[in-house]
Write a structure and sequence with these properties.
The chain is α+β, with helices and mostly antiparallel strands. The longest helix is centred in the C-terminal third of the chain and has 16 residues. The radius of gyration is 18 Å and the shape is globular. The N terminus is likely disordered. The strands form 2 sheets. The chain has a 7-stranded mixed beta sheet. Strands 2-7 form a two-stranded antiparallel sheet. α2 packs across α5 and α4 packs antiparallel against α5.
Length: 248
Amino acid sequence: MKPELLERFPLAHSRDAHSVSALRRGALLAAVLLGISACQGAGEVPEPEATGAVSAGGGLYSGIPQDGIVLGDPSAPVTMVEFSDLRCSHCRDYALEVLPAILERHVRTGQVKLVFRNLTFLGPGSVQAARMAAAVGMQDRLWDFVDHFFRIQARERPAITDDLLLRVASELPGVDAAQAMAERESAEVFRQLDEARTEAERLEIRGVPAVFLSRGGQELRRIRLTSMSPEPISRAIELLLRAPHPPM
């Protein structure tokens, strides 16, 4: 099957005179067709699914800088933006089965920094989990929280309650879980989730996980995932790194 272009989305609402030439440069990049299911629609209950990467995770993010929703070297040439819902089983499987390889290949090597955009498609439980993740992110441990939350969900499938959220945060070294619980209703948490929702609406995201790439602050390009495999994402990153860098 012949690869197509990655979908392209501008970082601002308006397009400038460079858009046409940018589209031509985009022809150098391959895309992968969407072939996995996605969690969609408010109130949908995701199907329980097995995952092959439940017990790992200790030290997954050790040594990688975190700053709120950003993971990795701030000066990395490529930015990867992930839209996720913490109640989504497909987002969980992506985080446990795909993301670790991306971390080792591209984040630890300084090629890519990750940005997490937390959505709440799936009802009140999604909102509770997203607020707690954002509050833990104020202590620069959002990525650890999301990973640990997903692993507990995969093993036990517990209901999302305050006790569960406190437990997840308490089991993360260096996190003040009580402080995070108190900050769930803070202005910063609401701002972060509002930003994620606004960006998702602009990009017309209808299901998660949704993954986008950008190089050097240029327009976002959506990756079409073929499977729960890191290979399509790695190929897209490598192609983006090899493509001629557009002029500023």
